[in-house]
Amino acid sequence: xxxxxxxxxxxxxxxxxxxxxxxxxxxxxxxxxxxxxxxxxxxxxxxxxxxxxxxxxxxxxxxxxxxxxxxxxxxxxxxxxxxxxxxxxxxxxxxxxxxxxxxxxxxxxxxxxxxxxxxxxxxxxxxxxxxxxxxxxxxxxxxxxxxxxxxxxxxxxxxxxxxxxxxxxxxxxxxxxxxxxxxxxxxxxx
Length: 190
What we know:
Blueprint: H1 6-21, H2 28-35, H3 42-45, H4 49-62, H5 76-93, H6 101-109, H7 114-140, H8 150-171, H9 175-188
Helix pairs in contact: 1-2, 1-4, 4-7, 5-7, 6-7, 7-8, 8-9
């Protein structure tokens, strides 16, 4: 089996470093060291650290398992719950030391980089659309009130999730997860 491409190793290291340290806390050398490649090879694959951040955001988005939200063989509300349980468990397993890379880079860089801001916006829009599909299914079946547009509910839930991650990181506890699940699944989508 051959060695993976340097580009792929740089992207994986960037996702890890940006997620752990943020954009400004992760230097190009730090990323290439993490990838086990020479620093000079970075510019053979990326024109800038910002360009790498865009690819890292895309890769991170792919790891959010959004495709599971479209599995029509599973109850739509169960799909939504499992999605957020997966995200909760992932964050809890890291002792509350990381939130969401999309939200983190959005908070850190949206005012400083149009390129990253647009990648964050695109990532959030895709996530919102993926969340809206099972919500719309639950509304169509009458299990969730259709008084609010599914896409609007999805955006609200996604915003609530990002806020939940901030709170769990500062509290280092699961209390905010409990509030999120109680309100979203016990009230909004009940």
